[in-house]
Amino acid sequence: MINMMKAESYRLVRSKGFGFFWIVMLISYAITIITKEAGGVTFGGPMPATESAKLDIRMVCMNFTYYFTLIAPVFSIITAEFSEHTVKNTISSAVSKKEYYLSKYVFTMLCTLVMFLLANLMYYGANAIVNGSEHASQFGEYFKAVMMQMPLVTAIVSAFIFLAFFFRKGAAFNSVSIMYPFIYSAAALIYYSACRKDDNKLAVRMLNYEISTMFSKLALGGSSGYVRNCIILCAVVTVVSFVLGYLSFTKREID
Amino acid sequence: MKEIVLKTNGLTKKYKKFTALENADMTVYRGEIYGLIGRNGAGKTTLMKVVTGLTEKTSGEFEIFGKTGSAAERERKRIGCLIENPAFFGNLTAYRNLRYYCMQKGITDLSQIDEVLKMLNLTDARDRKFKQFSLGMKQRLGIAFSLLDNPDLIILDEPINGLDPIAISELRETFQKLNTEHGVTIMISSHILSELYAVADRFLFIDKGHVLKEMTKEEIDFECMRCIVVKTSDTKAAATVLEEKLSIKDYKVIDSSEIRVYERSAAADIINRELIRADVSVSGISEAGISLEDYFKQLVGEESK
């Protein structure tokens, strides 16, 4: 497994997906640091008030951007192997399907989590240096906000890994993973609009557990019940997608 | 006793209702070049895919270096493979692609990469991206990949596809060199019979998922052997002349009007002269034989042309 991960590192740093991730993050971070305004994509439920929070914490609330940027490394690490058919080289002589899946899963997970954490820490440092303490929080406060999002990022990456092993084709993987938040939010909002005010509990719940909403609420420290539910939801998604990805890969033929 | 490196027993692979491989039995011994002969869709690739773990068998058994089950999976590290088309990362150079696989396999001696590239005449293309390779170069890089880590067994699926005649000839020499000088066992499939015949020691004929025959090169030679066909109305008298006057023992009476002489030293003109001297009427005498292609057609049940 260690050899597999070393090889993946060697290839990943030479892939376009890796470069894409850092370029997008650096550009978006540079813009927000210079303009002193948090920016990013959000949709779904009502966002928690962030006016009192400093720039870096408000930016952590916008970490939904990673949902899209983390598609690139998963694409490079897993989907490229299927579209280039290189997976057969590894399975036929280096490792078993089981070892291959575990190596890919662990490496992709570690790699994306480290990239997520590193990018956030870089942002904190850059913002603190450029904008000073007026716009920078205490490190502990910032770090806690980022770490609260880790279960969510883990679940998202795990789901991406499953989708990559399931669809195998880059186009299908990209389409489904990119479209999912839009479709979910649209469905939740339509349902919310269609419900009577006294009968919209499910719609509100759907909006509260929409991905960009969870990113914001977890960063700002939602209620303990909400955080608990988010963690349970993320754990379920992580475990289920891990198992489904494994079954999807090991039970099917490799082209 | 020869060591068995690969053995299958009743190996079957079904895709829903379609049976791609049925009860395939074969044995590959250490040190030989084993040829899989069959038409497109005969089951050659399926057999290789099952053995290399790219697909699961439906039933049957196979052993690699004497190991079965999960132990056989571990033995796959001793196998180098090229199944179907060579596949590498288009954005990486030949060297970097091979280096990636060296890292995967835990190969620390990276000089191997240049060695295999040199062996396959790819040294000049070392730093060229895979996506810029011609089909022949891709094929050669695939074979170079299969040679990494000095495998004990190389499995190559249609490795000469897309190669020009000179490249095919060079590749044939490479296989023979690997086999004789490095003792590598090679299992190779092709539907180009003449090429496979030129390189392999033993053959497995396969068609529509069924193993038709497993035979050595000598057995094929015997089956396809060139012979002298003697047409005569008196086969008994002709046989007596062959044995007593010409000391020919290796012949066969095909029917009441034909005898086939297989003895290599026999010459048609001498046989003809002796038969006429002995007053045996000869209505025709000619040299004949069967080509490998015709033999294969006979095996698969098609009429030989």
List the helices and strands and how they pair.
The complex is a heterodimer of chains A (255) and B (305).
Chain A: H1 2-12, H2 16-35, H3 55-61, H4 65-69, H5 71-83, H6 87-93, H7 97-131, H8 139-148, H9 150-167, H10 170-194, H11 201-208, H12 211-220, H13 224-250
Helix pairs in contact in A: 1-7, 2-5, 2-7, 3-8, 3-12, 5-7, 5-9, 5-10, 7-8, 7-9, 7-13, 9-10, 9-13, 10-11
Chain B: E1 4-15, E2 18-29, E3 33-37, H1 44-52, E4 59-64, H2 69-75, E5 79-82, H3 94-105, H4 111-119, H5 135-147, E6 153-157, H6 165-181, E7 185-190, H7 193-199, E8 202-207, E9 210-216, H8 217-223, E10 227-232, H9 235-244, E11 251-255, E12 258-261, H10 268-277, E13 282-288, H11 292-299
Parallel strand pairs in B: 3-7, 3-8, 5-6, 6-7
Antiparallel strand pairs in B: 1-2, 1-4, 8-9, 10-12, 10-13, 11-12
Notable features of this structure?
heterodimer; A: 255 residues; mainly alpha; 13 helices; 77% helix; 0% strand; B: alpha/beta; six-stranded mixed β-sheet; elongated
Give a structural overview.
The complex is a heterodimer of chains A (255) and B (305). With 255 residues, chain A is mainly alpha-helical. Chain A contains 13 helices and no strands. Chain A has helices at residues 2-12, 16-35, 55-61, 65-69, 71-83, 87-93, 97-131, 139-148, 150-167, 170-194, 201-208, 211-220, 224-250. The longest helix of chain A has 35 residues, at 97-131. In chain B, 36% of the residues lie in helices and 28% in strands. Chain B has helices at residues 44-52, 69-75, 94-105, 111-119, 135-147, 165-181, 193-199, 217-223, 235-244, 268-277, 292-299, and strands spanning 4-15, 18-29, 33-37, 59-64, 79-82, 153-157, 185-190, 202-207, 210-216, 227-232, 251-255, 258-261, 282-288. In chain B, the strands form three sheets. A six-stranded mixed sheet of chain B has the order 5-6-7-3-8-9, sandwiched between helices. In chain B, strands 11-12-10-13 form a four-stranded antiparallel sheet, with helices on one face. In chain B, strand 8 and strand 9 (210-216) form a beta hairpin. In chain B, helix 4 (111-119) packs across helix 5 (135-147). At the A-B interface, helix 1 and helix 6 of A face strand 5 and helix 3 of B.
